[in-house]
């Protein structure tokens, strides 16, 4: 037998290596595959390992994220959403914003449910709770026996869209309605409210004595505060029995404005009574009317309640009525914007036409100081003053005397400011290639990372706190650092040779979750709602102010502990790059910055969702398929 030469051996070995390399270049097999004939529009991974999939026929599907098993399909749930239109009048696409998975850090079972709630404010509206493990509609106005109306098209269950929703403190759903029943003799005004256990889906109690036009507030004693068009009430949350009620004086009129102070001790109502308007102060614990004062105004005013009184802003005046008796303490020039009590004797801050921030003296209504800044908006209250944003998205700080603590050239420059808040008294910002640490008690701001340079000249687009460190990232870069600014790791993964459009599509998918959260917050009433109710914004500023005033006490410590306990601790980032055997993803530990896994996709423009805690990705290779990978 002829002996194989050294050259032949080398060629043979090279051939084996080449064959092996070509074999490795094939994409790895997924753990599971799912095909939907109608096409996959979006995916949303939920905390309870269910992958929700929206299909192009506006169907909704539940998939076991571990096995890829199709658990259920509901092709009718979103049918009416096909007609939804945006503010520009154009038809909206099918997005995950239409569904809110419920969450409770103390009870994982809550995330078995999701709330589907959307409306175009005219005809198209929906409100259901589904079990995302089974696809079963467990709660809806129809299942709860709410009355129905039919004007044009199919029958629709009647409900107050802004007043119906999930009450997390009570783990319950409230469906409430009020309307004039055109089909009954005399066309009576009808009110109905139903309190439904999320766990059982059964109506625990119901009442035809009251309703609410926005989601009731859960009071400190775990009861409910209902504010309706004609009836407001405090309700025993266990039985539905009224603890007290407050009715409009004339049944043909409605309550037209309402607000309550931060601690929900007093509420203020505006209604028409006879030939004049009236502001009434009600003690919210007992329902006792404390005082009532006439108000001459053509239009319903905006009420802003504080512990020292209620500010009444109409088309001409900006008036403070005293808390004790309702007497007018002072009247100032017409102002507009969100009103914020600065606490102590610092005054009342009011925005004016996105140009000025003006502070009035609480006792006299006279102007204490004013700052003119284009596009100025209050960002948050701090212990050192008012943090604000300007028209460019830059962040500044005004102290309580009206001085720019950091403003103009000393601002945190926008646009593109990123931020992370590890505790209620600290915040970290990325802007203009620098990382800043801000002490929210003192207002001290310092640069802790002076120059951030990312490979491929990328700009960071995400900053997060993991519970152990901070991570600044872009499409192909990650940098970890601690509170002092010490860089723990920094790494760049070269982008595969793909189009810019492909890279943008990938990052858009990752960042979309933040936008969805913002959209849900907006939908849940972060803006002025019925009756001009603004407390969801202005009360938050008051809570921030009280936190900083109480920092030295147990309240501040407990609040910070609760805040830290809710910080997300996602473990992994996924980055598209060349993984040696082809184009794929690397799985990177956010704490150490080390690669802990990789997967070959051989697709230069993947669109995927992920489970960052367990390291799973859900990849959409075609318009009709979803693949699940574990690595």
TrEMBL record:
Q: Which InterPro entries match?
A: PQQ_b-propeller_rpt, PQQ_rpt_dom, Quinoprotein_ADH-like_sf, WD40/YVTN_repeat-like_dom_sf
Cite the Pfam families for this sequence. PQQ_2
Gene3D superfamilies with a match to the protein in the record: YVTN repeat-like/Quinoprotein amine dehydrogenase
What is the protein name for this chain? PQQ-binding-like beta-propeller repeat protein
What is the annotated signal peptide range for this record?
Answer: 1-27
Signal recorded as keyword: yes
SMART domains on file? PQQ
Keyword entries, A-Z: Signal
Q: Where is the Pyrrolo-quinoline quinone repeat domain?
A: 197-371
């Amino acid at each position: 037998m002829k002996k194989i030469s050294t050259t032949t051996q080398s060629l043979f070995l090279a051939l084996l290596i080449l064959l092996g390399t070509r074999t490795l270049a094939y994409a790895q097999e997924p753990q599971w595959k799912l095909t939907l004939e109608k096409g996959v529009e979006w995916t949303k991974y939920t905390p309870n390992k269910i992958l929700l999939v929206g299909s192009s026929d506006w169907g909704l599907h539940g998939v076991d994220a571990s096995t890829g098993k199709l658990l259920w399909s509901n092709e009718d749930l979103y049918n009416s959403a096909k007609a939804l239109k945006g503010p520009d009048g154009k038809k909206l696409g099918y997005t995950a914003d239409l569904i809110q998975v419920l969450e409770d850090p103390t009870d994982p079972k809550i995330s078995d449910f999701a709330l589907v709630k959307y409306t175009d404010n005219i005809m198209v509206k929906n409100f259901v709770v589904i079990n995302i493990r089974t696809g079963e509609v467990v709660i809806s106005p129809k299942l709860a026996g709410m009355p129905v109306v039919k004007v044009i098209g199919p029958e629709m269950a009647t409900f107050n869209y802004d007043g119906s929703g999930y009450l997390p403190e009570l783990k319950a759903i409230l469906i409430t309605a009020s309307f004039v029943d055109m089909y009954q003799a005399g066309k009576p005004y009808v009110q109905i409210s139903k309190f439904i256990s999320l766990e059982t889906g059964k109506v625990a109690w119901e009442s035809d004595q009251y309703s609410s036009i926005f989601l009731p507030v859960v009071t400190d004693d775990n009861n409910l505060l209902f504010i309706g068009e004609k009836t407001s009430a405090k309700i025993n949350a266990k039985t539905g029995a009224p603890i007290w009620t407050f009715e409009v004086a004339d049944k043909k009129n409605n309550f037209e404005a309402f607000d309550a102070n931060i601690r929900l001790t007093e509420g203020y109502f505006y209604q028409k009574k006879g030939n004049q308007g009236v502001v009434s102060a009600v003690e919210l614990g007992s329902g006792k009317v404390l005082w009532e004062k006439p108000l001459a105004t053509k239009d319903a005013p905006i009420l802003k309640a504080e512990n020292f009184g209620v500010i009444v802003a109409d088309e001409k005046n900006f008036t403070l009525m005293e808390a004790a008796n309702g007497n007018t303490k002072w009247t100032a020039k017409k102002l507009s914007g969100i009103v914020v009590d600065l606490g102590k004797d610092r005054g009342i801050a009011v925005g004016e036409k996105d140009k000025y921030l003006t502070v009035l003296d609480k006792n006299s209504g006279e102007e204490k100081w004013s700052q003119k800044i284009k596009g100025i908006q209050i960002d948050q209250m701090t212990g050192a003053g008012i943090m604000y944003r300007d028209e460019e998205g830059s962040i500044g700080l005004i102290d309580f005397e009206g001085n720019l603590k950091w403003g103009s050239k000393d601002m945190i420059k926008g646009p593109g400011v990123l931020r992370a808040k590890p505790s209620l008294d600290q915040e970290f910002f990325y802007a203009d290639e620098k990382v800043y640490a801000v002490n929210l008690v003192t207002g001290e701001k310092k640069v802790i990372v002076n120059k951030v340079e990312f490979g491929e000249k990328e700009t960071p687009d995400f900053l997060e706190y993991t519970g152990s460190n901070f991570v600044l990232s872009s499409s192909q870069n990650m940098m970890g650092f601690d509170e002092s600014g010490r860089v723990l790791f920094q790494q760049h993964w070269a982008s595969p040779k793909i189009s810019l459009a492909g890279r943008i599509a990938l990052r858009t998918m990752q960042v979309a979750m933040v936008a969805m959260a913002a959209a849900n917050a907006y939908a849940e009433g972060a803006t002025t709602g019925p009756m001009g109710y603004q407390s969801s914004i202005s009360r938050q500023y008051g809570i921030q102010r009280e936190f900083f005033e109480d920092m030295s006490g147990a309240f501040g410590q407990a609040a910070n502990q609760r805040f830290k306990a809710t910080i997300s601790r996602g473990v992994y980032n996924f980055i598209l790059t060349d993984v040696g055997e082809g184009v794929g993803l690397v799985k990177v530990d956010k704490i150490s910055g080390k690669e802990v896994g990789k997967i070959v996709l051989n697709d230069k423009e993947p669109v995927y969702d992920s489970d960052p805690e367990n390291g799973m990705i859900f990849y959409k290779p075609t318009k009709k398929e979803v693949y699940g990978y574990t690595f």
